[in-house]
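Hi W., the nicotinamide-adenine-dinucleotide complex you wanted:
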Amino acid sequence: MLSSYSLVLPNKVFSGEEALSQLCGILASEKSKKVAVFTDSGIKKAGVLELVLNYLDKAEVVYEIFDDIVPEPTYMQVQQIVSNCESYGADFIIAIGGGSVMDTAKLASVLSGSSYTVKDLLQNPLSSSKKIKTLMIPTTAGTGAEATPNAIVAVPEEQLKVGIVNPDMVSDYVILDYRMVENLPLPIAASTGIDALCHAIECFTSNKANPFSDLFALNSLSLILKNIEKASLDREAKKEKENMLIASFYAGIAITSSGTTAVHALSYPLGGRYHIAHGISNAILLMPVMRFNEDVCSPRLADAYDFCFGEASGKDEKWKSSYMLSRMGEIVKNLNIPTSLAGFGVTLDDLDDLVDAGMKVTRLLNNNMKKVSKEDARKIYMEVL
Ligand SMILES: NC(=O)c1ccc[n+]([C@@H]2O[C@H](COP(=O)([O-])OP(=O)(O)OC[C@H]3O[C@@H](n4cnc5c(N)ncnc54)[C@H](O)[C@@H]3O)[C@@H](O)[C@H]2O)c1
Ligand SMILES: [Zn+2]
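Structure:
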C-alpha cells in the first residue's frame, strides 16, 4: 500500500432515467454558445448520436459535429481532429462515444488554443492545461475514459499505444444514460465490458491500490461479475446495462487513483502492432496474467470474493481466490471472446518483438504486485499464441 494517495473526480455526474435531459441545464450553466460534438461513424450509424442531438437542439447553441474519429486513433489522426476543433472555436466539447472518441475530446480540451501538439504531450504530458470544458457521454461500458485523466493514442513508429496522463483531462461533466449502450452489438459490449473488468481487478491488485481506489474497484467488480453477461447478451436488460455503465465509470475512477497492471501493459503492443481492439487484447491476456499473479495476489483476490459474494464459511483464501479466477474465466467463455492470438496474424516469429515492446510499458508493469521478468512476459505471450 502507498502511504499517500489521491483522487481526482469529474465535477458533476448524472445517471438514471432520462439522464441525458440534463444536457440543456449543463450548457446553460456554462453559458455555452458554440459546441464541438465529438463522435464516430459507428455511433452515428447506431442511432445513438440522434438521441443526444435531440436534447442539443432544445438548447440555444450552435454546434458542429466532428465524426471522423477512427477507433484507437494514432496521435497524428487525433492531431487532425484537434486542429479542426481549434479552427471552429468551440467554447464547450461534448464527447459521445467509446474510449477513442472520449480520449480525442480530452486532448482537444487541453490543446485547443495552446501552442502544443499531441506529439508534445507524448513527451511532456503536463505541458498544457485545460482550455475548454468537457462533457463525456460514454456509449460503451467500457473504458471508463469519462472518469480518467488518461488519453491513449497509437504511436505507429514505435508500434505501441501510449497513455498521456494529465489531471486537467478529467472531464467536467459526465452523463451515464443506459440508452447509449442499449443496442451495443454483442462483440463490442463483451469486449468493452471485459476491459472494465480488467480495470477493476487490476486496480484492486495493483501496487498502487489504496482505500480510495479499493472502494471503486470493488464496487465495480461486484457489479460487473453480476451483470456483464445479461447486459451483453440480452437486449432488454435495461438495469444490467445501466449497472455496467456505472461499473465502468467506477473502474475509471479506480484507474485514476490506482493503476492497471500487467494485463494492460502486455496488451499495449497487441493494439499498437496488430491493431487488436483494446478490450479483446485485454480479454486474451486476462486469464494468463491472473494465473501468473495468483500466488502473490491471492489475499487480495480472496478479499474481493468476500466483498462481491459475502464471506463463505469454511472456505479458505486459496478457494476464494481460485473461485474469482474461475468466475472471470467463465465470463470470457460465456461472452465468446477470443482467448488466443490465433486469427490475429501473430506468430512465433513475433514473440521476441512482442516481449521487448511489452517490457517497455514500465509505467504499468511497475504496478504489478508480482514482478514480471522478460522470461515471464515471454511465457505469458506463449500461452496465448
Ligand atoms: N482513457 C482511458 O482511461 C482509457 C481506458 C481504457 C481504454 N482506452 C482507450 O479507448 C479506446 C477503446 O475504446 P472503446 O473500447 O470504448 O471502443 P472505441 O471507442 O474504439 O469504439 C469501438 C467501436 O465501437 C463502436 N461503438 C461505440 N459505441 C457504440 C454504440 N453504442 N453502438 C454501436 N457501436 C458503438 C464505435 O463506432 C467503434 O467502431 C482504445 O484506444 C483504448 O486504448 C482509454
Ligand atoms: Zn483498458
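Residues 278-309 form the longest helix (32 residues).

W.
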